[in-house]
Amino acid sequence: MDAFYASEEQRGNPDLRGEPVVVGGSAERGVVAAASYEARKFGVRSVMASITAKRQCPDLIFVKPRFEVYKAISRQIREIFAEHTPIIEPLSLDEAYLDVTENLQGIPLARDIASRIRETIKAETDLNASAGISYNKFLAKLASDHRKPNGQFVISPEMGPAFVERLPVGKFRGIGPATSAKMNALGIFTGLDMRNQTLEFMNANFGKSGAYYYWISRGVDERPVRANRIRKSVGAENTFSADLIEFETMAAELEPLVDKVWRHCKSTGTRGRTVTLKVKFADFEIITRSRSVYSIANRSDLAQLATSLLKDNMPLPKAVRLLGVSLSSLQGGDDARPPQLDFGILNRLGHPLSIPL
Question: Which of 225, 226, 259 is CA-nearest to residue 336?
């Protein structure tokens, strides 16, 4: 989906159409959750601090997020997907992969399935979706970004290796700024540079991710579309209006975070083994501390472990801007449906053909 949250706010409010809109908090500590394409022209993007976004676009309009609305529309879009294939792997509310090797409508070409789905989404929600069509998930995602907004692009098996070799490493999904900088320092700037490295070199420098980078630089990605993708963790965090210093204050702020995480566990029947405390300091440095047990059976256990992790690291060296609590190594329950929907379609007719819309 193109600028999903912001587009929905513009759709529901004619006064916002054509305006630079951001979904998120406008306060000094606020963060941009989504930016309209009008805002993106000024360099505003998601996860940017609101104060920075306002500096780059003084006329920016902030709208509070309405996640229940976004979830409802996401479910509606998922139903459209399901008319074409049951093999749907949601990645977020606005992005998913679809495997259309055997599509339910009998449409022979994946590009035509993508067009049909995008047309239906537009007709039923008045929102735009973009699609990438290719023979694996990595290339499908790259293709989905190629013709945004409101477009689609096909990377065929013949095009795949050449398409990847021209790509800057920072554009590879899964390669963030830190890894990109490390690759640049090693003389790796493009997909071709990466492809020229040996598997041993990539493993030595990038650990368990080395093999993944080695193969995607060759256009190879064997990951299937998993219709029942199991969520690995659940978490909650909060950015404070003023920096925190005292243990008692921080311990109190952990309580609503623990409540949110445990509500998810109760609603899905899941339990976890590892609690992680996230601390972001006033200078934006982040540390995490984790502890694993046999099983966390109740909210009290979760709260006790989170508070213990905080206490064990007191006194902290700097004032705290944000705290987060997460639970991982999840087991049990029917938690196969993570936040839902760009979308990817895989068509395994000789080669998989994959679509992020």
Answer: 226
Residue 228 resides in a domain: no
Which residues are catalytic, by number? 95
Per-residue pLDDT tens over the stretch 301-318: 999 999 999 999 999 999
- Please list, residue by residue across 260-292, b when 16 or more beta carbons sit within 10 angstroms of its beta carbon and e when fewer do: ebbebbeebebbbebbbbbbbbeeeeeeeeeee
Cα separation values, 33 from 26, 30, 46, 107, Å: 11, 9, 5, 36
Measure the CA–CA gap between 206 and 201, rounded to whole angstroms. Answer: 8
* Residues paired with residue 281 on neighbouring β-strands, in sequence order: 320
Provide the domain limits for residue 53.
4-65
The edge-to-edge listing of strands for the beta sheet with 21-24 is: 32-35, 21-24, 61-63
Number of domains the chain is built from: 4
The helix (H) or strand (E) run that includes residue 37 is: helix 37-40
DSSP3 helix / strand / coil % (the chain, rounded to 5): 40, 20, 40
Query: pTM score, two decimals?
Result: 0.69
pLDDT tens figures, 184-221 = 999 999 999 999 999 999 999 999 899 999 999 999 99
Q: Is residue 227 part of a domain?
A: no
